[in-house]
Amino acid sequence: MKTLVLGLGNTILSDDGVGIHIAFEIEKKCKNIDVLEASAAGFRVIDEIIGYEKLILIDSIKTGKTEPGELRRFTFDEFSRTMHHTSPHDISLFEAFDIMKKEKVDLPTNIKVYAVEVEDTSTFSESCTSKVEKAIPKVAEIVIKENNLT
Question: Rounded to the nearest 10 degrees, what angle do helices 130-146 and 18-29 cross at?
């Protein structure tokens, strides 16, 4: 199965880059997958996922309801209903996905979404906070195991 692991976020805004860090941790351990990072979504990313059968999205989430570093799993539809920051000049990945599906573009049908609870997404830093940093290898292993990526 042709698989793409897509890490979302911004690696210069502390914990916001956790999805990208996890995606690259997975890439170090797995051979038969593709890994990409994206700091923007919508139509800027949609071309990258065309032709894949399986898509694994990894992102940050900030609810304040769980401890930083805790992993949450979502369906694509569930995650689309969470709040996402987008530019007024762009559309979300989920909106782009819907548009392309209506156009019968070959998009992944098997989609898993992983989100890590974060603490700080506004400080300019290339490092995650300590609890989130500690979660990166653990979450990578979980994603690898749950998706048989080895």
Answer: 50
What is the pTM for the complete model shown? 0.88
Structural domains in the chain, sorted by start:
3-146 (3.40.50.1450)
Per DSSP bridges, beta strands 34-38 and 3-8 are parallel
What are residue 137's phi and psi, to 5 degrees? -65, -35
Burial-class residue 92 by CB neighbours within 10 Å (0-12, 13-18, 19+).
Answer: middle
Residues 3, 13: Cα–Cα separation, whole Å: 27
Summarize pLDDT for 58-105 with one digit per residue, the tens.
999 999 999 999 999 998 777 766 655 555 546 677 777 778 777 778
Identity (one letter) of the amino acid at 101? K
